[in-house]
Amino acid sequence: MTPTTTSAPAHTYPSLRAAWIPLAALCLAFFVEMVDNTLLTIALPTIGRDLGSGTTALQWVTGAYSLTFGGLLLTAGSMADRLGRRRVLLVGLVTFGVLSLCVVTVSTAGELITLRAALGLAAAAMAPITNSLVFRLFEGQALRMRAMTVMIVVGMSGFILGPLIGGTALAHVSWEWLLLANAPIALIAFVGVRFGVAKDRPEDLTADVLDIPGAALTI
């Protein structure tokens, strides 16, 4: 008889305090993807003057991010089920950070809209996974609910405070820095997830075929 091999149990934490590094990293990832929904709202007039763009183009600066972000959430979750949640989140964080640095190359409204759409795609690869990985940190249901509450509060604070943060920063720096600041945040979150969240196990993955046409229709 051939012995059956199983993966070792995932490492979990006994309390929120013990898990503060990975929990803070997941909260940071959720915060940065949510704050970017509204961060540039106050900066749109300044962006319009700098790039010489009209009202319609400026609406797409924020709309492009929301479109790809919201439209690809389900698809990103399905991909994470196949490739591994932790792995997809790490790739999403790297992509989000690198794309944020690309704002220094933007010279037209079209380029900024394209960049924002790409950032929304990277954020979509992060949003559903940050929430699910919280459950991987703990075994007890009570701890999981407390951690999820913390994450939701942090994420929604980012969405609500985005215009305030953007407006305050805009009084001291150029609008490009609003996106450049994403890079170090993504880096910190990457390190915390990389070393604090348990790796994906083979039995947690699914081999179902990804519905590409369905994914396209969600956008």
Structure explained in plain terms:
The protein is an all-alpha fold. It has a single domain (29-195), classed as MFS general substrate transporter like domains (Growth Hormone, Chain: A). 69% of the residues lie in helices and 0% in strands. It has eleven helices and no strands. It has helices at 20-35, 44-51, 55-71, 73-83, 85-101, 109-124, 127-137, 141-170, 176-180, 182-196, 212-217. Helix 1 packs antiparallel against helix 10 (182-196) and helix 7 packs across helix 8 (141-170). It is globular. The termini are far apart. The model is unreliable at 1-5 (pLDDT under 50).
Question: What's the structural blueprint in terms of helices and strands?
Answer:
Elements: H1 20-35, H2 44-51, H3 55-71, H4 73-83, H5 85-101, H6 109-124, H7 127-137, H8 141-170, H9 176-180, H10 182-196, H11 212-217
Helix pairs in contact: 1-7, 1-8, 1-10, 2-3, 3-6, 4-5, 5-6, 5-7, 5-10, 7-8
